[in-house]
Amino acid sequence: MTDVSPAVSADSTAEVSVLDTLFHSELGGHEQVVLCQDRPTGLKAVIAIHSTALGPALGGTRFHAYAGHPRPEEAALRDALNLARGMSYKNALAGLEHGGGKAVIIGDPLRIKTEDLLLAYGRFVASLGGRYVTACDVGTYVQDMDVVARECRWTTGRSPEQGGAGDSSVLTAFGVFQGMRACAEHRWGSPDLAGRTVGVAGVGKVGHLLVGHLVEAGAEVVITDVRAESVERVRAAHPGVTVAADTDALIRTPGLDIYAPCALGGALSDATVPVLTAGVVCGAANNQLDHPGIEKDLADRGILYAPDYVVNSGGVIQVADELRGFDFARAKEKATEIHGTALEIFRQADRAGVPPAAAADRIAEQRMAAARRRGAS
């Protein structure tokens, strides 16, 4: 079922584009898409529910302006559709009883984010009756979810003071570290990362925590970030790290064993894959593959790629646990399973002669299909 806001007229070019994206593009197949608008607060948002086969759709709320796009609303829609689909796969492989959803609030959060806007957004989420559970994403934070939760009980990623799990970056970084251990075990026969050289591109919320795990494990770490203050924070905590001039210099670093993209999506592209020196890619960023086919390019070069939505699922494991009454030890134990899940994906990929990304998709699709069959019986 698709809900289209009355603000989009039936004969408008915008709606033709929306419907084409929903029903005819490779991003289609979603159960429900809601366009939300609240004129008094300036709220414009998209909520995309890809699947509820495994349970209520769970995924964060992105707050982004899409500056530079000629049609920001359409860019936001496509982002929501793509991210919601990714959450279905992520939640399936994380072993959660949740489907996939995602929301995008359109606008610059530094300019238009207000308490009233977040409350209005919470009312829209609540109107879905629990089909979609929201949380933090780019541009939204724990304190924002505390506000949204005042209007919507289907909100997670709240502060500990409000009964929530707090910053989900903690288990996101831990899960990526477990994924790296699985990569090392599959590639080099041991999960030990001591002595391995790991390049981390992006040392923000997740990246700087990942560096901590790597340093503790005895890895040699090379970092880069577009924000000088982020680099300096890591250097202050871990003086032994090396700093690369930029991402291009990082991926060309001689002797690099593992490359960890932890910033924006599209890090693995036609320009970057041919010059990667690392034999393994495992990072926290979402949507790392710039376009379909990049996963085969990596495999053809002998580079082991850990599917991003598998290894960065520690955050969603953390916020999902909050819905049960948050227990950090229980959530961390669940995130530890990322190691075994990644290993199984690598094994199935080798047996089938396909890239790990294809094997991961296949496993997730099988789990969702099995859940649909159970629901229909």
Automatic annotation (TrEMBL):
Pathway: Amino-acid degradation; L-valine degradation. It catalyses: L-valine + NAD(+) + H2O = 3-methyl-2-oxobutanoate + NH4(+) + NADH + H(+). It is an enzyme of class 1 (oxidoreductase). It comes from the Bacteria. This is Valine dehydrogenase. It comes from Streptomyces sodiiphilus. It is found in: Cytoplasm. InterPro entries: Aminoacid_DH-like_N_sf (IPR046346), Glu/Leu/Phe/Val/Trp_DH (IPR006095), Glu/Leu/Phe/Val/Trp_DH_C (IPR006096), Glu/Leu/Phe/Val/Trp_DH_dimer (IPR006097), Glu/Leu/Phe/Val_DH_AS (IPR033524), Glu/Phe/Leu/Val/Trp_DH_bac/arc (IPR016211), NAD(P)-bd_dom_sf (IPR036291). Belongs to the Glu/Leu/Phe/Val dehydrogenases family. The keyword NAD applies.
